[in-house]
Amino acid sequence: MPDTPTGRRSNDALTELAERVEKLCRVYGRNDQLADLLTAAGADDLLRQVIELMASGDRPLDGMTDLLDQLDAAATNFGLHGLTRPDRTWSPLPGVRTPRAAPPLRVCPLRWCTRAEESAASCALVDRPLTLLP
42-71 pLDDT, tens per residue? Predict the structure, then answer.
């Protein structure tokens, strides 16, 4: 992850890492196919390490970035591209839609990703419910 001249991580790099964890969590939580594919690709240990790092309470950002890079490489070698890389989508400029009141949101219980849901959901990677924001 690139450092700024002061040695601190840039907000862009932190956001990118959080987006990558979010995408992995969403894909992993859909069904058991991802775990099966990663096992077939020989990358199940990498997935286990990502989950253990998330649950540990430590925040070694370089370590998580390295693990996600390795997981992406293993998945790509198996034909699964962009496993942890967020898809970029188009959205209209501000003011194009009528604003609505912000609903209560639930967010990553470990604050590793950018996931936000309006309804009850859980983090599939650490098997914990998303945290309700006040």
Answer: 899 999 999 999 999 888 899 999 999 999
